[in-house]
């Protein structure tokens, strides 16, 4: 279920319908949006994403474990290489990116992370990825296992799974390649100094 | 932050300070009134603001995005997309078949667009006259409005050599005997950097931020940024103003605080999707169910090639060459226009929907990539009905636009045409941007792969930066939401002046059409408001 966050005040008023937060699988049909991290860059002091002072407003510890495990697969082969030490920075970038998304999309993401962290949904989603033991904690899922699950969601005949894949893909790759430190492997030198 | 001059930012920090209200700082309810309230500060809203304010009318310009000026434009995708685009540049159609780029800042989409400036094609106007009853839309009637806006916004054919990305499109097309042409652009003293999509850091782009909006401010207008028009105030026959809410620093609407704006006339220019959404939230009369319907996208297909030479598709003026040879096929099928987009790492990584080795190979070769886009001219036949704007449970808009068989036929032809051009230009390999595609060498294997690609929503990457329609003009109430002069068919005191007016897509990038339409409508509106009408 969706929990109200500091950045969606007043959504219960106005046009929002009382039933909107019901966790129906179909609600995931919403756009899981392209993400990039707005506000760390605009602090303008070059502060890093793994700022220990970051207060997560959307992703809780369980969500972050899922995210980092899946990112290990989505970012396999990137240069510089992604390791779980980058996990906190990536999770903060995703957390900040989600702050700017519309309420509907935030609800969809909440549903997705709830499915991925709760045992039942997790088993179903991972089972589709051919994971033998869907009860393995996220911390112990290897990039290869996570990659099999992601590929299964990408290629599934179920739109719900395709969208889950697309949303995670866009958030993780968007945040990764938004970071100037990750351009080196692409031949993009970055913007000129003006 | 750049050290370059920022006259617009300076003026907002100085003389215009008292006439700019930033919703993010607003703590309590407010009531304001004016002759005219304009919703949206993009192509349509910016032009209307200038003309109406210079006509001596008091104007409130309401924009849900933030005020950002050239000193803020540091050419970083991760900052530009969340700050300057609708839904952080992640807007998608309901089934997620199409990704939609639209601006959300003072200046609207003109702040982040790529500067291509075309007049409405004569064939498009002929179709509007013949099929949509818009008899007055002739090239002759519109010519003075195009001339006026081309002068106002310094539109001229790109006069220096195209960057390599555009140059390869020209070379490939010319080798096939096609007729590549130079794109006119709305720039003044352009530095040829390539960051139009992240806000122009040099103020060369003649967006609404640096042209019509400063002119309106100089003529006494008031700007409300980070204020979202929620619903029109009306009694079923006349509009009296609107209710709005501030937007916080994260872009979220704060419904706990209300602004009540009263006006003799409301001009809705919140963009296609945004304008129909405001009218839907306002429950305006819609006796024929036309509101939000027939929304078009110029849905775009992409083809990614690899060259031995460095292409650097992120550097230089993003669009300077186009190919129209496929735009008006004689068999009546959906035609397409060919251009190239700017390609920076974040957007490229997202648009390439795969992951793992293949994705890494693409990203590692980014500097050698060449990406052509085909924008499909939708809406010109009954089997291209476009999409419909609907509201979600929060009152936010969504576009329901299923991709149908007619579109997919055009898609396959577009991938073929783009691959031929890229091979002719010397590409080592070409790959349609589609999850089932693999890089292919020229020859029969390529043809076989193209013929086999599944034409399926979600597998092919389809994007759009051109949203049009949803409040279509028509002489008949049955045919659309607005009259040919932009006024609402059912409600007095309300007109629309933006991309949502268009009865079909255009077959060219829309901005110049919208500038000309808005100039014409606003000039008529100013005259009648000064006489006490509307
Ligand atoms: C990345 C990109 C590249 C493009 N490149 C080109 C190009 O090269 N050439 C070309 O011709 N066209 C291009 N376009 C398209 C062109 O910019 C648009 O067609 C044009 O700006 C649309 O004008 P508009 O007035 O309809 O809407 P917009 O310019 O989008 O302005 C609408 C404004 O209304 C605001 N708004 C929406 N709802 C509300 C509300 N409820 N309350 C208050 N404000 C609201 C929005 O935030 C926005 O600022 C591009 C667009 C994009 C996004």
Record keyword descriptors for this entry:
heterodimer; A: 194 residues; mainly alpha; B: 534 residues; alpha/beta; FAD/NAD(P)-binding domain; Cholesterol Oxidase, domain 2; eight-stranded mixed sheet; four-stranded antiparallel sheet; 13 helices; 27% helix; binds flavin-adenine dinucleotide; oxidoreductase (chain B); FAD (chain B)
Please give a structural write-up.
The complex is a heterodimer of chains A (194) and B (534). Chain A has 194 residues and is mainly alpha-helical. Chain A has one domain. Helix content of chain A is 46%, strand content 0%. Chain A has seven helices and no strands. The longest helix of chain A is centred in the last third of the chain and has 20 residues. Chain A starts with 38 loop residues before the first helix and ends in a 16-residue tail after the last helix. The relative contact order of chain A is 0.18. The N terminus of chain A is likely disordered. With 534 residues, chain B is of the alpha/beta class. Chain B has two domains: 282 residues, FAD/NAD(P)-binding domain (3-Layer(bba) Sandwich); 158 residues, Cholesterol Oxidase, domain 2, CATH 3.30.410. Chain B is 27% helix and 19% strand. In chain B, the strands form seven sheets. In chain B, strands 1, 2, 3, 9, 10, 11, 12 and 23 form an eight-stranded mixed beta sheet that branches. The longest helix of chain B has 20 residues. Chain B is globular, with a radius of gyration of 22 Å. The model of chain B has no long low-confidence stretch (mean pLDDT 97). Chains A and B meet through α1, α4, α6 and α7 of A and α3, β4, α9 and α10 of B. Flavin-adenine dinucleotide binds next to α2, β10, α8 and α13 of chain B.
């Amino acid at each position: 279920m969706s929990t109200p966050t500091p950045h969606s005040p007043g959504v219960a008023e106005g046009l929002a319908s009382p039933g909107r937060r019901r966790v129906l699988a179909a609600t995931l049909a919403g756009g899981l949006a392209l993400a990039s991290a707005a506000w760390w860059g605009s602090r303008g002091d070059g502060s890093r994403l793994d700022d220990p002072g970051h207060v997560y407003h959307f992703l809780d510890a369980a969500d972050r474990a899922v995210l980092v495990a899946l990112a290990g697969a989505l970012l396999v082969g990137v240069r510089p290489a992604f390791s779980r030490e980058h996990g906190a920075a990536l999770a903060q970038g995703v957390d900040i990116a989600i702050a700017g998304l519309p309420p509907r999309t935030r609800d969809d993401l909440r549903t997705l992370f709830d499915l991925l962290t709760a045992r039942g949904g997790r088993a179903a989603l991972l089972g589709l990825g051919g994971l033998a033991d869907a009860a393995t904690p996220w911390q112990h899922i290897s990039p290869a296992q996570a990659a099999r699950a992601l590929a299964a969601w990408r290629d599934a005949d179920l739109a719900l799974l395709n969208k889950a894949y697309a949303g995670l893909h866009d958030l993780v790759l968007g945040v990764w390649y938004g970071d100037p430190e990750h351009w080196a492997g692409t031949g993009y030198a970055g913007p000129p100094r003006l | 932050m750049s050290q370059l001059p920022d006259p617009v930012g300076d003026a907002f920090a100085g003389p215009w300070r008292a006439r700019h209200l930033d919703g993010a700082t607003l703590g309590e309810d407010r009531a304001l009134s004016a002759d005219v309230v304009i919703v949206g500060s993009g192509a349509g809203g910016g032009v209307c603001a200038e003309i109406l304010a210079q006509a001596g009318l008091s104007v409130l310009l309401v924009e849900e995005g933030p005020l950002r000026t050239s000193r803020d434009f540091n050419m970083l995708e991760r900052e530009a997309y969340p700050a300057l685009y609708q839904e952080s540049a992640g807007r998608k159609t309901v089934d997620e078949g199409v990704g939609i780029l639209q601006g959300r800042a003072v200046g609207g989409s003109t702040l982040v667009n790529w500067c291509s400036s075309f007049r409405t094609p004569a064939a498009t106007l002929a179709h509007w006259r013949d099929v949509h009853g818009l008899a007055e839309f002739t090239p002759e009637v519109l010519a003075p409005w195009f001339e006026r806006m081309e002068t106002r916004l310094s539109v001229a054919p790109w006069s220096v050599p195209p960057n390599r990305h555009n140059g390869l499109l020209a070379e490939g097309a010319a080798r096939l005997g096609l007729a590549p042409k130079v794109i006119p652009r709305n720039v003044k003293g352009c530095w040829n950097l390539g960051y139009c999509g992240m806000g122009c850091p040099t103020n060369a782009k003649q967006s609404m931020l640096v042209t019509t909006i400063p002119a309106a401010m100089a003529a006494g207008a008031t700007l409300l940024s980070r204020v979202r028009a929620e619903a029109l105030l009306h009694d079923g026959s006349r509009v009296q103003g609107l209710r709005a809410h501030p937007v916080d620093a994260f872009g979220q609407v704060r419904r706990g605080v209300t602004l009540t704006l009263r006006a003799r006339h409301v001009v809705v220019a919140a963009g296609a999707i945004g304008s129909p959404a405001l009218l839907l939230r306002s429950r305006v009369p819609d006796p024929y169910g036309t509101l939000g319907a027939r929304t078009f996208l110029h849905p775009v297909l992409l083809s990614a090639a690899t060259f031995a030479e460095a292409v650097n598709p992120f550097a230089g003026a993003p669009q300077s060459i186009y190919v129209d040879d496929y735009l008006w096929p004689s068999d009546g099928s959906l035609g397409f226009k060919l251009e190239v987009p700017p390609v920076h790492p974040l957007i490229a990584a997202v648009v390439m929907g795969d992951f793992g080795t293949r994705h890494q190979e693409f990203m590692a070769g980014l500097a050698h990539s060449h990406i052509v886009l085909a924008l499909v001219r939708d809406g010109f036949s009954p089997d291209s009905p476009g999409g419909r704007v609907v509201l979600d449970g929060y009152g936010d808009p969504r576009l329901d636009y299923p991709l149908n068989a007619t579109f997919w036929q055009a898609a396959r032809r577009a991938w073929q045409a783009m691959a031929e051009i890229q091979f002719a230009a010397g590409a080592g390999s070409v790959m349609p941007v589609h999850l089932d595609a693999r890089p292919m060498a020229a020859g029969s294997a390529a043809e076989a792969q193209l013929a086999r690609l599944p034409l399926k929503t979600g597998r092919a990457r389809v994007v759009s930066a051109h949203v049009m329609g949803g409040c279509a003009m028509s002489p008949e109430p049955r045919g659309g939401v607005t009259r040919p002069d932009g006024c609402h068919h059912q409600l007095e005191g309300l007109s629309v002046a933006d991309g949502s007016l268009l009865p079909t897509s255009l077959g060219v990038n829309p901005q110049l059409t919208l500038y000309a339409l808005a100039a014409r409508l606003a000039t008529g509106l100013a005259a009648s408001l000064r006489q006490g009408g509307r």
